[in-house]
């Protein structure tokens, strides 16, 4: 196995943590003996639990092998501080590994090169930069929050081939547009996020819960933009308040209704007003930034999605396309909502099948520009 292939495998291992480790970064680790044999592997499996390096060392020892003298391939700089777990750099030193090859530095304040310093001072050779771009693409939200203290904004939507976001049956009722496999994948995405944001139009039309299901693990804090406070207290968002927190941003001065909502255990925040007299999405993101939000998912209709794009606030796109031409059965046309927006070229595109659907993902800019 060529050297880069060890790192490629570490990157694949890291991906297994998606939806379980956030807000921590996904990390993978492979331990290779002097003869080139993979003797240990691991990844960060759950927030608050052992990091990838610790799991790889455990795997090595469970096989009855010694990591002494080995080379460790890891997708992110080993941590150097005591948090929910002890520092990984110290564990590697204790294991007497001879070399650590890391794909990238940890940009967070708590590490920022200190892990490499610990290793070098202990006489361990350190190399940095192998498969850097692929490793950065694992954790763009972690990188952005560490460097710029701003949340990573993911726009998610489902559509037909002709650009409609909703499908109706012969009776005029809304039906599922995409497959069960696609919807399960959306729940994994929700679970990876700190916040999920929707507009009142989507809430009134669909009456969603906006939780991650099944209910094991975390669900994102739900944010609703409702400038006129049109939300009803009998909606599923209120019925599922025990499953995930809910905050409503509004411009309304209806103190009686605001108190009724608060009495249901829901937070109500005064929003800033944008140039169109609606809740300012920039203002909402500013407030989430102050709360150290890392990943914000926007699951909304065409108008709100278009506004995020128009303001340059979208970082990533997850688009599920069903093999359907809805024509007259379609509602909520994206091309119509986006007609006035300038064109843009997306980066790092991927296409993944989910049953008969296709999931398209892309970044709004190159990973090197985050």
UniProtKB/TrEMBL annotation:
The organism's place on the tree of life at top rank: Bacteria
InterPro entries, sorted: APOBEC/CMP_deaminase_Zn-bd, CMP_dCMP_dom, Cytidine_deaminase-like, DHFR-like_dom_sf, Eubact_RibD, RibDG_C, Riboflavin_Biosynth_HTPR
Cofactor or coenzyme needed: Zn(2+)
UniProt lineage: Bacteria, Pseudomonadati, Planctomycetota, Phycisphaerae, Sedimentisphaerales
Residue numbers binding NADP(+): 158, 176, 202, 227
UniProt keyword list: Hydrolase, Metal-binding, Multifunctional enzyme, NADP, Oxidoreductase, Riboflavin biosynthesis, Zinc
PROSITE patterns (UniProt xref): CYT_DCMP_DEAMINASES_1, CYT_DCMP_DEAMINASES_2
Note accompanying the cofactor annotation: Binds 1 zinc ion.
Family classification: In the N-terminal section; belongs to the cytidine and deoxycytidylate deaminase family.
Protein name per the record: Riboflavin biosynthesis protein RibD
């Amino acid at each position: 196995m060529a050297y880069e292939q060890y790192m490629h495998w570490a990157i694949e291992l890291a991906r297994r943590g998606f939806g379980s480790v956030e807000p921590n970064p996904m990390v993978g680790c492979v331990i290779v003996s002097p003869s080139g044999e993979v003797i240990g592997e691991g990844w960060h499996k759950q927030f608050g639990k052992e990091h990838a390096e610790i799991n790889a060392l455990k795997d090595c020892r469970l096989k009855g092998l010694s990591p002494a003298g080995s080379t460790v391939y890891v997708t992110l700089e080993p941590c150097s501080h005591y948090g929910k777990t002890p520092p990984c750099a110290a564990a590697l030193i204790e294991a007497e590994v001879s070399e650590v090859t890391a794909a990238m530095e940890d940009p967070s304040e708590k590490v920022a090169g200190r892990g490499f310093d610990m290793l070098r001072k202990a006489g361990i050779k350190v190399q940095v930069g192998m498969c850097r771009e692929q490793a950065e693409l694992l954790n763009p939200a972690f990188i952005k929050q560490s460097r710029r203290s701003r949340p990573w904004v993911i726009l998610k939507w489902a559509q037909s081939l002709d650009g409609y976001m909703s499908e109706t049956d012969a009776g005029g009722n809304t039906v599922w547009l995409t497959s069960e496999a696609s919807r399960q994948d959306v729940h994994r995405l929700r679970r990876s996020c700190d916040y999920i944001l929707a507009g009142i139009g989507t809430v009134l039309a669909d009456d969603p819960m906006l939780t991650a299901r099944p209910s094991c693990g975390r669900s994102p804090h739900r944010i609703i933009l409702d400038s006129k406070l049109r939300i009803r207290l009998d909606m599923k968002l209120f019925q599922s308040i025990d499953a995930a927190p809910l905050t409503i941003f509004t411009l309304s001065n209806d103190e009686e209704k605001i108190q009724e909502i608060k009495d249901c255990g829901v937070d109500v925040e005064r929003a800033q007003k944008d140039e169109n007299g609606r809740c300012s999405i920039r203002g909402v993101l500013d407030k989430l930034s102050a709360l150290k939000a890392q990943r914000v998912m926007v699951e909304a209709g065409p108008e709100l999605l278009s506004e995020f794009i128009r303001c340059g606030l979208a970082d990533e796109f997850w688009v599920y396309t069903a093999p359907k031409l809805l024509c007259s059965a379609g509602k909520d046309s994206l091309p119509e909502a986006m007609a006035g927006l300038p064109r843009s070229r997306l980066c790092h595109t991927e296409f993944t099948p989910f049953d008969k659907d296709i999931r398209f993902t892309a970044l709004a800019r190159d990973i090197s520009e985050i």
